[in-house]
Amino acid sequence: MITAVSACGSSSKSDTTSQSIAVPDSQGGGETPTEEQAEFTLESEVMLSATGAASASETYASIESVFGEGSIEAPDLFAGDHTSTPHILEETDSVIGPHFVFLAHRDDDFNKGVQSDRQRNEIKTYDKSDDEVLGFEGETMQFEWYFYVDSDMSLTSKFSHFFPA
User: Where are the residues of the annotated region Disordered (predicted)?
Assistant: First the structure.
């Protein structure tokens, strides 16, 4: 599940009633503060949840329905890149339940079809995304997700990052 929360800002497309929201602690938990304690007020919330059973094309359609058409930058979407394998999938297991799987192939994936020291597999927001998922000057955005990296994951040692801000 990926949740994007926009707070202390406004959205022309959102008619969500403002409400206080939980402020996470360092362990990911949190309690809903009173109005006086709230660090910010919820203006809009967008959630993308995996079903675990979708095909790759259904997964991509689900992501784009939330973050906008063209919001996926995965190797299989760029000519000259690793196009034979979908790079964002949905799976279900007994520990996590339904979840998204982002695949990275150290020696096969590139950066939007250009062979370089970088690899890209991401969901992004941009000018074609709804206002609810865009951050604007003076607004606060909160993102929440659960993330697991397998201990035997092997990427290029030249350049790798997760969720750049």
Answer: 1-41
